[in-house]
């Protein structure tokens, strides 16, 4: 009995001390929620609620001119599936993405490899390569619009010097998208260069030293060490480039306004045109959700592929 009593007394003494950490952790959790609450409230008010409202509008015939609404079910989505202009805008967006993704990723990685090594002008080159990222989209598009000009543009002056035929790149449906692509690559390559540089700096140098001892060449080191260890960084770059490419709109808006003859009209520009120029908000919102579903599906597939490659 004495041993049982002693055990009970010791248990009663230790019980409060065991409850104290739980109370402390619960207090920390409540404090953390108070810090998170303002951000969550902002997201709820300015992101999630508008998305829910937009989803509801996509099932309506909503005209901004007369502010008339009527529920039409899936009619907007059915019309978009057979809308030639919308399907053409999707093709233009995917054309831009398919060209930009590999070229921009390769250039970004190449520049990161060049500036990774320390020398006197490393900081200068990093700054020069990153300047296009911080330049306003409107300013960059305006400058390129002048460069592409047939009469006094720099590009056509170079072609004249080389005795090659000149052309107005932005007025020709066959070359207008190429002009947008060059501007898009120039504008975004610096940001992803910094991302790749951070990934390269996280690779242990001991691996390269061991590879050199084993007689591995630079190319072998790149394909056996650098690329495999940059898998997660590459996945991030490719996914973000894909999203940015498919939702391209700002450059098109300033550079070509979707022309000539709709040759550069991307999906996002089409959504803007339907919603705010033709005032068909329900139709434009439905197009936006179709584009959202496409981008989400592509991103999930890319994440799965990169995860499998990593394993």
From TrEMBL:
Main location: membrane
UniProt-listed SUPFAM superfamilies: MalF N-terminal region-like, MetI-like
Residue stretches spanning the membrane: 30-52, 94-115, 127-148, 180-200, 234-255, 281-301
Pfam families tied to this protein: BPD_transp_1 (PF00528)
Keyword list, A-Z: Cell membrane, Membrane, Transmembrane, Transmembrane helix, Transport
Domain of life assignment: Bacteria
ABC transmembrane type-1 domain segment(s): 90-302
Membrane topology: Multi-pass membrane protein
Signal peptide as annotated in the record: none
Location(s), subcellular: Cell membrane
Family that this chain belongs to: Belongs to the binding-protein-dependent transport system permease family.
Protein name: Carbohydrate ABC transporter permease
Species in which this protein is naturally found: Paenibacillus rhizoplanae
Lineage per the UniProt record: Bacteria, Bacillati, Bacillota, Bacilli, Bacillales
């Amino acid at each position: 009995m004495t041993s049982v009593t002693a055990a009970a007394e010791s248990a009663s003494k230790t019980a409060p001390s065991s409850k104290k950490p739980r109370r402390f952790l619960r207090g920390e959790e409540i404090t953390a929620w108070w810090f998170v609450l303002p951000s969550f409230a902002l997201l709820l008010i300015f992101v999630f609620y508008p998305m829910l409202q937009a989803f509801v509008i996509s099932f309506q015939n909503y005209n901004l001119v007369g502010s008339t609404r009527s529920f039409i079910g899936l009619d907007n989505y059915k019309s978009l599936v057979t809308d030639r202009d919308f399907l053409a805008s999707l093709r233009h967006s995917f054309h831009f993405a398919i060209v930009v993704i590999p070229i921009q990723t390769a250039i970004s990685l190449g520049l990161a490899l060049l500036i990774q090594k320390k020398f006197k002008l490393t900081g200068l080159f990093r700054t020069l390569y990153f300047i296009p990222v911080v330049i306003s989209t409107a300013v960059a598009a305006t400058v390129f619009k002048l460069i592409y000009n047939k009469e006094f543009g720099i590009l056509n002056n170079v072609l004249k010097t080389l005795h090659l035929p000149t052309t107005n790149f932005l007025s020709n449906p066959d070359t207008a998208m190429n002009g947008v692509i060059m501007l898009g690559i120039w504008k975004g390559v610096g940001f992803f260069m910094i991302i790749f540089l951070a990934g390269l700096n996280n690779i242990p140098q001991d691996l390269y030293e061991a590879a050199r001892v084993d007689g591995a060449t630079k190319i072998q080191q790149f394909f056996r060490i650098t690329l495999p260890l940059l898998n997660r960084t590459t996945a991030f770059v490719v996914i973000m480039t894909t999203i940015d490419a498919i939702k391209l709109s700002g450059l098109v808006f300033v550079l070509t306004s979707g022309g000539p003859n709709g040759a550069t009209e991307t999906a996002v520009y089409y959504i803007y045109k339907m919603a705010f120029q033709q005032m068909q908000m329900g139709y434009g919102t439905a197009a936006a959700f179709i584009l959202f579903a496409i981008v989400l599906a592509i991103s999930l597939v890319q994440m799965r592929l990169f995860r499998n490659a990593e394993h």
